[in-house]
Automatic annotation (TrEMBL):
<feature type="active site" description="Proton donor/acceptor">
    <location>
        <position position="114"/>
    </location>
</feature>
<dbReference type="GO" id="GO:0006085">
    <property type="term" value="P:acetyl-CoA biosynthetic process"/>
</dbReference>
<dbReference type="GO" id="GO:0008776">
    <property type="term" value="F:acetate kinase activity"/>
</dbReference>
<feature type="binding site">
    <location>
        <position position="7"/>
    </location>
    <ligand>
        <name>Mg(2+)</name>
    </ligand>
</feature>
<protein>
    <recommendedName>
        <fullName>Acetate kinase</fullName>
        <ecNumber>2.7.2.1</ecNumber>
    </recommendedName>
</protein>
<feature type="binding site">
    <location>
        <begin position="174"/>
        <end position="178"/>
    </location>
    <ligand>
        <name>ATP</name>
    </ligand>
</feature>
<keyword id="KW-0418">Kinase</keyword>
<feature type="binding site">
    <location>
        <position position="14"/>
    </location>
    <ligand>
        <name>ATP</name>
    </ligand>
</feature>
<feature type="site" description="Transition state stabilizer">
    <location>
        <position position="207"/>
    </location>
</feature>
<keyword id="KW-0067">ATP-binding</keyword>
<comment type="subunit">
    <text>Homodimer.</text>
</comment>
<feature type="binding site">
    <location>
        <position position="350"/>
    </location>
    <ligand>
        <name>Mg(2+)</name>
    </ligand>
</feature>
<comment type="function">
    <text>Catalyzes the formation of acetyl phosphate from acetate and ATP. Can also catalyze the reverse reaction.</text>
</comment>
<keyword id="KW-0547">Nucleotide-binding</keyword>
<dbReference type="InterPro" id="IPR000890">
    <property type="entry name" value="Aliphatic_acid_kin_short-chain"/>
</dbReference>
<feature type="binding site">
    <location>
        <begin position="296"/>
        <end position="300"/>
    </location>
    <ligand>
        <name>ATP</name>
    </ligand>
</feature>
<dbReference type="GO" id="GO:0005524">
    <property type="term" value="F:ATP binding"/>
</dbReference>
Amino acid sequence: MKILVLNCGSASVKWGLYADGKPIDGGLIERVTDCAQAVREVLFTTDVSDVDAVGHRVVHGGLRFTTPTLVDDEVLDAVTRLVPLAPLHNPVNLEGIAIAREMLPGVPQVAVFDTAFHRTIPPAQAMYAIDVEVAQENGIARYGFHGTSHAYVSHRTAELLGRDPAGLNVISLHLGNGASACAVRGGLSFATSMGLSPLEGLVMGTRSGNIDPAVVFHLHRVAGMSFEAIDDLLNQRSGLKGLCGDNDMREVLRRRDAGDEAAALAFDVYCDRVKAYVGAYYALLGRVDAITFTAGVGENAAPVRAASLSGLEAMGIAVDPARNGSGERGERLISPEGAAVAVCVVPTDEELEIANQTAELLTR
Ligand code: AMP
């Protein structure tokens, strides 16, 4: 089975072509200003003549979409209604689907949602403690994101450890440009750090993650900032960028090594937040078998992995310095031999997971 995967982001289009679960072609178009044009370019320049289906990454599936879904007009309407919850992402995802439908008529289009994996989180985790009527009327809930990555990484972790995912509790740490933690219990999402939007939770490249909501009121009422300006501040000028001026962890590490105090503090704020979530999810899960790092920072930044899990020996959590710093790539174990909790690095592959989920839907 041949599957084309399209991952249309706010500024890039990632794509991959898979034959029976194996990658045969793929690419990344960056600094995209017209997603439709970029998708046309991919379809014009790639041999898609015998594609069986196209799998699309769709960021927000609300509470409705819990599994990969065959796209029809009604599904597109539903995804369009979710645009206010993901204003930067759902519109470009919809554009990609529209172009693929137009250029590959008759080929099944499948939407794979970032939020879907998290639809197993229990109400105690999904609900914010606000007036339930206001929440219900306005769709205020913890949706969670990076679901495709957390699903892939937690299943690969079970494979790496030779364990059945159904019996494994994993804390998955997706640390990339965006960052989120996920407590995975028996292969299912049980808690996750992103919420109504991808702004909640961990410190990110340019996003604040958790703050006291009163900061927003204060900046509006006292500092006179508009909601648009506060939105921009928290999404684009916060996180590592806000703390030290650089959003790329490579640069933060380089400056920290050179004795830069702002970079060192940004690093500490970032890693402390990760550690706090590890502790919280350890408590929620009751038992943790593995902690897995993934995405740009998680896969590459050994100092972040070491600092985020430092001092947790009493919880059975430790990172072996030689394994952690080996510079090895690929799926690997970085905890000491015989540690109670396996600490792993698993490169994420959202496109492969989308291809697999798309193929699975078609053969069901
Ligand atoms: P992603 O969203 O998964 O593509 O992650 C992108 C981010 O990963 C970049 O903005 C960097 O901050 C970070 N990153 C990539 N490579 C490295 C590296 N070798 N060391 C530290 N951070 C890295």
